[in-house]
Amino acid sequence: MSNTKFPQKREEKPEFKRGKSEYVLCPVCYSAYYDKSWHHALSEDKHFNEIKEVKFTICPADKMIKNKQYEGQIILENVSTIIKYDLFHLIENIGARAFHNDPMDRVISIKETENRIEVLTTENQLAVRIAKKISESFKDKMKKGWEIKYSHREDPTRIIWKKVL
Questions:
Q1: What whole-number distance in Å separates Cα of residue 45 and Cα of residue 98?
Q2: Cα three-residue angle 67-133-143, rounded to 5 degrees
Q3: Which of 20, 38, 40, 82 registers the highest number of CB atoms within 10 A of its CB?
Q4: CATH assignment of 66-161, among 3.30.160, 1.10.10, 1.10.1070, 3.30.70
Q5: Is the dihedral of CA 72, 78, 81, 82 positive or negative?
Q6: 109-135, pLDDT tens digit by residue?
Q7: pLDDT tens digit string along 64-76?
Q8: Inter-residue contact 124 to 157 (CB < 8 Å)
Q9: How far apart are CA 34 and CA 37, in angstroms?
Q10: What is the DSSP annotation of 43-77?
């Protein structure tokens, strides 16, 4: 039996080492890492009154944004001006709700060029949720024909609509 180590898949690598008796704060969004996950505030920790070491580091979501990385991408082509306003608000509201539930779930950007809208998210599941909600909310105004493209190598999930009324 050899001691050969196989590389871990991306999803198997821990974000941080084991939960330690310390806090990690993000200086960009002020999220706090404790109890093995990111939270919006330290005050949510039931052990907040205990004396613990505090470290500062940029959280994974802010690192992605800084490095221009994303996990979810939605592309809407041939978007009618009739639904653009409602579409933007729907995307922003879903993004705000996702961020409220988890500080690592974020809509990074919503870019518009002529008849095309591109949405980037920090989580691929958030992009899928947004796409499903768009489809549900605008089912009478949008043609079916969107598809979700998952990569086998942990690249971003892409959701593409070719014809949006």
A1: 20
A2: 105
A3: 38
A4: 3.30.70
A5: negative
A6: 999 987 789 999 999 899 999 988 988
A7: 999 999 999 998 8
A8: yes
A9: 6
A10: GG-TTTTS--EEEE---HHHHHHHTT--SEEEEEE
